[in-house]
């Protein structure tokens, strides 16, 4: 084949999907890998060596994307852990309280970026909902929704100990 065509790439979709599912062990994550691989293959189809196997080429792309995704995820986990540690490094509470603060900091670091941004602006920086909306360029309703989901996620992440119930408030709109 002289030039790789999109139809040549799409004809290899079933083995590409199977391999991505095998690597990720998750249908949704596999679909993301496949989508990224197909996009990359279409963008870089001029790098395909004529006479080579389209399947081998595509499976190599899937593999490389999966490995890169895993590296990014591990790097994100390390950043989140360092961030959580930095949040409590300057405190010197008793051991139990320190462990609890570490737990809260780790849960905060694991929040999705949009929720973490809202929670930080409102609960840490004391911004109003309107100010947070203006800073992030989103509607106030979105601020309230993300803040609610962030608070709920932190509550779920805390231990079941009733006397250590987490109450995440802040901002001039909180009551």
Question: What does this molecule look like?
Answer:
There is one protein chain. The protein folds into two domains: 6-74, RNA polymerase sigma factor, region 2, helix turn helix motif (Rna Polymerase Sigma Factor, Chain: A), CATH 1.10.1740.10; 103-164, Arc Repressor Mutant, subunit A (Orthogonal Bundle), CATH 1.10.10.10. The chain contains eight helices and no strands. α2 (13-24) runs parallel beside α4 (54-88) and α3 (27-43) packs across α4. The N and C termini lie far apart (68 Å). The protein is 70% helix and 0% strand. It is mostly helical and 175 residues long.
Which characteristics define this entry?
175 residues, mainly alpha, Rna Polymerase Sigma Factor, Chain: A, Arc Repressor Mutant, subunit A, 2 domains, elongated
Please sum up the structure shown.
By secondary structure, this protein is mainly α. Helices cover 70% and strands 0% of the residues. It is elongated and about 65 Å long.
User: Based on the structure given, which CATH architecture of the largest domain is correct?
Assistant: Orthogonal Bundle
Low-confidence stretches: 160-164
| Ends apart, CA distance between termini | 68 Å
Sketch the topology as an H/E string, one letter per element: HHHHHHHH
How many distinct helices? Answer: 8
Task: Kindly provide the name of the CATH class of the largest domain.
Answer: Mainly Alpha
Helix proportion:
over 70%
Number of beta-strand segments: 0
Shape annotation: elongated
CATH-wise, what's the superfamily of the largest domain?
Answer: RNA polymerase sigma factor, region 2, helix turn helix motif
Gyration radius, rounded: 23 Å
Largest sheet: none
Structural class: mainly alpha
CATH topology of the largest domain: Rna Polymerase Sigma Factor, Chain: A
Mean pLDDT: 82
What is the strand content? under 5%
Total number of domains: 2
């Amino acid at each position: 084949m002289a030039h790789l065509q999109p139809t040549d790439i799409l004809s290899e979709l079933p083995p590409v999907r199977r391999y991505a599912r095998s690597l990720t062990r998750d249908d949704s994550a596999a679909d993301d890998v496949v989508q990224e691989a197909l996009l990359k293959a279409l963008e870089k189809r001029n790098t395909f060596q004529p006479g080579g196997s389209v399947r081998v080429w595509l499976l190599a792309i899937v593999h490389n994307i999966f490995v890169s995704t895993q590296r990014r995820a591990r790097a994100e986990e390390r950043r989140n852990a360092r961030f959580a540690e930095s949040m409590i490094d300057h405190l010197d509470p008793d051991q139990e309280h320190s462990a609890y603060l570490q737990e809260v900091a780790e849960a905060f670091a694991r929040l999705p970026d949009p929720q973490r941004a809202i929670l930080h602006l409102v609960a840490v920086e004391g911004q109003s909902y309107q100010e947070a909306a203006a800073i992030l360029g989103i509607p106030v309703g979105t601020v309230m929704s993300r803040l609610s989901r962030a608070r709920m996620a932190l509550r779920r992440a805390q231990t079941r100990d009733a006397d250590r119930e987490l109450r995440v408030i802040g901002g001039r709109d909180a009551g």
